[in-house]
Input
Amino acid sequence: MNNLTIRQAVIDDAATILRFVTELAIYEKAEHEVLATEQTIKETVFASQGHVNALICELNGEPIGMAIYFFNYSTWLAKPGLYLEDLYITEAKRGLGAGKLLLKRLANIAVTQGCGRFEWSCLDWNTPARDFYESIGAVAQTEWVGYRMSGQTLSTFAQ
Output
């Protein structure tokens, strides 16, 4: 029998988190964009004044996936929200219910923390993920267009 469990990540999970981040980037065809290291994960995800949280999903004690999340704020609702930055289950362990279990835990955290929303983004070409999210009742927010500034553009604009 499969024993799936979810636990809060600890600093000793930094290498595991980096492995999952890298696997996710490979899946998203963006491995070259990963600048994270084990040390930077330790310094950010596990910072004493940090704003990032991580969950680890284990199968029979073996890490098979993760969720990285943080809290944001909705001015319209005047409530916090939970934003899921990354959800990842290692490819060989998909289909066992780990992703759904992580999402349920995150939804529980959102409700417990009084959040008005639980949100995340998904690449438009990732049909398996989009189908899964819709199967659990999530609704795509197609009227919103995401914008991003990074790297030299961000530095130049900040001046």
